[in-house]
Amino acid sequence: MTAATMPTRRSRGRSGRGITRGQAAAGWLFTAPVLVILGLFLLVPVLMALWVSVSDWTGRGSPISGDVHFIGAQNYGQVLWAGGLAEQDFGVALRNNLWYVLLVVPTQTIVALFLATMVNRRLLRLRGAFRTAYYFPSVTSSVAITVLWLFLFSTSGAINAVIGWFGVKGPNWFNDPDGIFHFGAQSGPRFLTGHTILGVSWWDWIGGPSVAMFAFVLLAVFTTSGTFMLLFLAALQNLSGDVEEAAMVDGANGRQRFFRVTLPQLKPTLFTVITLGLIGCWQVFDQIYTGTRGAPSKTTLTPAYLSYQAAFEGNQWGQGAAIAFILFAIIIIFTLIQRWVLAERAVSKRRMRWITDYQRTAARSGTGAAR
Amino acid sequence: MTVTTPTELAEGAALVGGATRPARPLRTREHWTPGRIAGQAVVYVILVAIAVLYIFPFLIDVATSFKTEPDAAAHPLSLIPQVWTTAAYEKLFLNSDFPVWFKNSLIVTLLVTAGRVFFDSLAGYALSRLRFRGRNVVFALVVAVMAVPNVVLMLPKFLVINQLGIYDSYTGMILPLLTDAAGVFIMKNFFESIPVSVEEQARIDGAGTFRIFWSVVLPMAMPALITIIILSFQGSWNELEHFIISTQDPSLTTLTKGVAMLSNGQLSQGTQYPLKLAAGAIMTIPVAIVFFIFQRRIVNQSTGAVKE
């Protein structure tokens, strides 16, 4: 291997043989710390956990010692199809988190987009102050915010005080296990209560998140909308104003300009935000650990917390590891579904023509309008 | 809050990328009709209302931390305590492990931030500038690692930490956090955006690779390094999961873990809201300071469409 045969992207022709060899050594040396740490604390752990998830390790001694045995898919079975308590717990956790994702992801995306368009106005005073205010909840620790949330949503807390102004008695938030879509009904019709998926009745599946989980939904929107606002803002600022101005000249009103001109151009960012939102929402752990530890009646249990609880508190290491891998699979599946759905709804041809028309108009009228 | 999240990567990209946008002159002349003024007023009312919604909870937090417990329960919305008391803070600092938690968080955060700044930029530089066999494989690995959700790694990480015998030690708390894939990615992208000519000059003058990296390239990478500092500081200060699975010893508890245990009842009886909220307020301060120092960078990536 000589410098001449090395494919070089930026050909400079000056790098001699000695320099290339020096670079090879330096390259490995410079990346070694990262490789060792990422390998040791990311790759090796995944392999070890994969082994634990198919073993009968109980937490004593090393999982790679002689007295730990391969037991096949038993741990996965306990969680997915054995019909016991473990399956029911997983079903409940999945239901809780599914509702959480369904409510948080659209809400945080819409709120973030709304905030970004609001603070992106050209003639806005105090723009920086508004952006700072909206972003601040995103930088603070999830633990500190959860503690605050517990206080705000306590029975005699600030939220219920505000609700009280309207003469309504607020719920018992973090102690209320009722599904918000059950609307207070205590039992459902027979055809819904009689069937179960993962040990959870259809009635409970459709009941929505508990009031307690709903408080966590609000917390998530509060803490993530600022971050996503910044992503949208960066994208908005990189848009060329020409297309929008052409639309304005043609008499498109604000709403038309936003939905037909701006939004289609923001599609890549929308895609990023929804993907990150999905991945983040399936990983709720900190808030649950700090706030409720799964209570009331397991309605704030999430797969991530269940995995921790099974392993560290219940000594069911195999099951804990199995849940972690199932969660991993769920995240991948959801991301793929989302990619597929958004790809299908790519900018339609008709809409694309709209945009290109405007771009052409903009090009024709040119920057002349500015001068 | 996890440490290497894709969110941080995207945030980081936004932080680094936003700085170089060209200014665009204001094109259309605005006419101030009464309708426009009314419209503007509505916009401001909405913006202020949302800002209050986002900031008021933090004011309640601070106010409540100076209240007595009955006062906190009776007047949850009031920003002025009926009786000012610093009992919560006295208890935290004089009668609890809080100072130990604070010290641990500080140690971990400073070392992790320093480590990431150094190792991430070193690797980022190698991946963007040095030509060596396997470079693409290394980079693919870094990207692959970013795709694994952090929560999924909680239990696996414990297994390795335990196996290595570094459970319940600063080593176990710090070492696994010392580099992050997202940071490497950010640094690599940044180095690719700056011209190579300066380095070549130094190379011709006979400087070694590390010397070029350390005294020529790194000083030019300040914007990206600041991004890494912000993200690492915030990420490791707010990190919870890793400390739950890497320690058990009360003398190694960090702020996040300690306050979480205080909150979820593992350490306390009763509500004790002023105490918990005081703890939450204090742990927010360092991140808030970093945030306000770099605030212009974070939220004003560009001054917007109107310059001058």
Helix percent band of chain B: 55-70%
The helix/strand order of chain B is HHHHHHHHHHHHHHHH
CATH architectural label of the largest domain in chain A: Orthogonal Bundle
Strand order of the largest sheet of chain A: 1-2
According to DSSP, the number of beta strands of chain B is: 0
Number of domains of chain B: 1
How far apart lie the N and C ends of chain A?
Answer: 58 Å
Largest sheet, strands/sense/barrel of chain A: 2 strands, antiparallel
Integer tally of domains of chain A: 2
- The CATH class of chain B is identified as Mainly Alpha
Membrane topology (chain B): Multi-pass membrane protein
Main location (chain B): membrane
Pfam families (chain B): BPD_transp_1 (PF00528)
Subcellular location (chain B): Cell membrane
What does it look like?
The complex is a heterodimer of chains A (371) and B (308). Chain A has 16 helices and two strands. Chain A has 371 residues and is mostly helical. Chain A has a two-stranded antiparallel sheet with strand order 1-2. In chain A, helix 3 runs parallel beside helix 9 and helix 14 (303-313) runs antiparallel to helix 15. Chain B is mainly α. In chain B, helix 1 (6-17) packs antiparallel against helix 12 (222-238), helix 4 (87-94) crosses helix 15 (273-293) and helix 5 crosses helix 14. The two termini of chain B are 38 Å apart. The chains are: A mainly alpha (371), B mainly alpha (308). Chains A and B meet through helix 1, helix 3, helix 4, helix 5 and helix 6 of A and helix 1, helix 2, helix 3, helix 5 and helix 6 of B.
